[in-house]
């Protein structure tokens, strides 16, 4: 029977009836579930479902199930919209009740460590459904989620399937990543510098800004929990730097921009590691890629090879792997800049690279 819900009736789909008629028969062939852990969350988009929809996923020693409901969220109207009579709009959203069935009871003293792991399993299972939905319907408003896409805290419920009348309710804090609540205003010199660099971007006079933009994107993806995108962008930040720098060094040595670009593109697109070794010819340094103790070796092990696994083998990196990839790519780019700074012959090229702030990022 349905039980009174002390946390506002959030769990409306995952009931004793659902357990007895659907989930328990599914799991009984594999193991006996002795405890259910439920989480409730509102997704930041709408999956067009109507009523009870469940997706059952079975993994080694636990079972996962999901119930989806349509909901709505008030849309904040800015003054411009209000001036045109736009008000009281709401946007559709989807709430999800996530269930993990466990073969053993979860000791209370272990819940602080165990509940985040259970939620991680549930998010993984939820993303299987979301990915399948995206592939099936090409709905560009929907995307696989990370914990960063969820609220700062989520409600949970722990149920003994033999006694639905006495659930344990609580709230689990996920992260403390609040939106930026205020930044110090830019002074006039800083504003002027940003405006000057905007002019450089418009003119295309400095080819090194793209590498910085890709690095910023990598750390943004990393912050938001998009680990694959973070790694790919981190590697791209290195490739765009190496490419732009090699071409500029060739031009400094007398080649035309057209010839340098054509020759570099033809070779580097076939073998990027050739480009790395070729760059050493210009700026020197220790470039032993087998030694993870130096920046090139750390980048090769943590970022380059990881990116290849993602792109060519469909690998999904952990957050720690993504963090190491972003950091190693950043360290490698700074390493390249500092080596270049020691070459007086390429002083003008170094000044253009330096003005993008690449070395300053090492302090972040």
Report the helical percentage. Answer: 40-55%
Low-confidence stretches: none
Largest sheet: 6 strands, antiparallel
Average predicted confidence as pLDDT: 85
Brief write-up:
The protein has 364 residues and is α+β, with helices and mostly antiparallel strands. The chain contains eleven helices and six strands.
Give a description of the structure:
This protein is of the alpha+beta class and 364 residues long. It has helices at residues 16-28, 79-83, 111-137, 188-203, 209-223, 227-252, 257-268, 272-283, 295-313, 319-341, 347-354; strands spanning 35-43, 57-59, 62-74, 90-102, 153-160, 163-173. It contains eleven helices and six strands. It has a six-stranded antiparallel sheet, sandwiched between helices. Helix 6 (227-252) packs across helix 7 and helix 9 packs across helix 10 (319-341). The radius of gyration is 26 Å and the shape is elongated.
Question: What is the fold's blueprint, element by element?
Answer:
Elements: H1 16-28, E1 35-43, E2 57-59, E3 62-74, H2 79-83, E4 90-102, H3 111-137, E5 153-160, E6 163-173, H4 188-203, H5 209-223, H6 227-252, H7 257-268, H8 272-283, H9 295-313, H10 319-341, H11 347-354
Antiparallel strand pairs: 1-4, 1-5, 2-3, 3-4, 5-6
Helix pairs in contact: 5-6, 5-10, 6-7, 6-8, 6-9, 6-10, 9-10
């Amino acid at each position: 029977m349905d039980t009174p819900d002390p946390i506002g009736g959030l769990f409306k789909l995952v009931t004793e009836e659902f357990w007895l008629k659907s989930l328990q028969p599914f799991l009984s062939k594999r193991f006996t579930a002795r405890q259910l852990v439920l989480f409730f969350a509102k997704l930041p988009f709408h999956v067009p479902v109507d009523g009870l929809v469940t997706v059952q996923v079975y993994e080694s020693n636990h079972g996962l199930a999901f119930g989806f409901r349509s909901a709505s969220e008030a849309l904040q109207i800015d003054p411009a919209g209000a001036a045109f009579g736009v008000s009281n709009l709401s946007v559709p959203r989807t709430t999800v009740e996530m269930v993990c069935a466990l073969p053993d009871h979860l000791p209370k003293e272990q819940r602080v460590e165990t509940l985040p792991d259970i939620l991680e399993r549930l998010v993984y299972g939820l993303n299987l459904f979301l990915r399948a939905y995206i592939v099936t319907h090409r709905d560009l408003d929907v995307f696989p989620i990370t914990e960063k896409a969820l609220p700062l805290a989520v409600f949970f419920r722990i149920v003994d399937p033999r006694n639905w009348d006495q659930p344990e309710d609580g709230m689990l804090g996920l992260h403390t990543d609040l939106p930026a609540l205020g930044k110090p205003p830019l002074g006039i010199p800083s504003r002027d510098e940003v405006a000057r660099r905007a002019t450089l971007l418009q003119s295309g006079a400095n080819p090194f800004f793209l590498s910085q933009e890709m690095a910023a994107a990598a750390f943004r993806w990393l912050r938001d929990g998009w680990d694959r995108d973070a790694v790919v962008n981190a590697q791209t930040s290195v490739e765009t730097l190496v490419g732009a720098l090699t071409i500029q060094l060739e031009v400094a040595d007398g080649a035309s921009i057209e010839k340098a670009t054509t020759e570099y593109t033809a070779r580097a697109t076939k073998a990027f590691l050739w480009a790395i070794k070729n760059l050493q010819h210009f700026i020197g340094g220790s470039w032993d890629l087998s030694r993870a103790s130096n920046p090139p070796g750390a980048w090769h092990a943590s970022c380059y090879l990881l990116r290849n696994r993602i792109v060519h083998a469909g690998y999904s990196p952990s957050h720690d792997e993504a963090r190491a990839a972003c950091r190693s790519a950043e360290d490698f780019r700074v390493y390249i800049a500092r080596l270049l700074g020691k070459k007086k012959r390429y002083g003008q090229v170094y000044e253009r690279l330096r003005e993008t702030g690449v070395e300053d990022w090492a302090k972040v």
